Amino acid sequence: MLYETLQRPELLPQVMTEIAMASTNDPNGSAVNIKLLCTQPLLQSMYAETLRLYTSLFALRSAAHRSVDVDKFTIPQADLIAVDSRVCAMNSHLWSTGSLGNNGQEHHPLDCFWPERFIIRPCEPTSGPLRFDSKKARSSDLDATAPGPGRSPYFSLDGLSGGWVPFGGGNRQCPGRNFAKQEIIVGFALIVSMLEIELLARDKIKIRKPNLRYYGLGTLPPKGSVPFKFRKRD
Which residues contact 6 (CB under 8 A, 6 or more apart)? Predict the structure, then answer.
């Protein structure tokens, strides 16, 4: 989250606005309302997009009760199944890339970070994480209680079961996923609130892609060094 924010100077003021909304200004207590902070739409979307792009793991499962037919293949009972989270995260049939440009090119390809990929704007049919045609196909997965037309933009993972799986899936997904979300968002908020951080030679160094040498091992660091300087905020 931090690296991608520093690549986009226009993003930081939006982030700071959401952090300010959750600040308590209580000298004797917590600096932020953690519950409120972790429900801000942009921060949640950036968190989810970071995990979509920068995690790669294999969730191991098995067909415990019987063999399972998948398309033209049969998975024998008790054989291990390795579900690749990055293949799911790069599924172009599922994920939205926003509206197309005048040249027909995708505005937000799946191998690039899009801070608002998980934000739904009720009046914009191409907003949100799902492709427009996937929204119709997977309408049974969508949350009927989500804000409707005319409401404010909101964060959503609806319809992404089997697509966004940085913590695994099903009954055996990571039990600490909610705590991890709080750690990531709160840690990020404290760092950008307390420190002024500047990437060095940003104009000369291309945006670092995830380092696929660490494929399948959990998190993917940026490929190459990322020089920066920081100082305490006044």
Answer: 12, 197, 198, 199, 202, 228
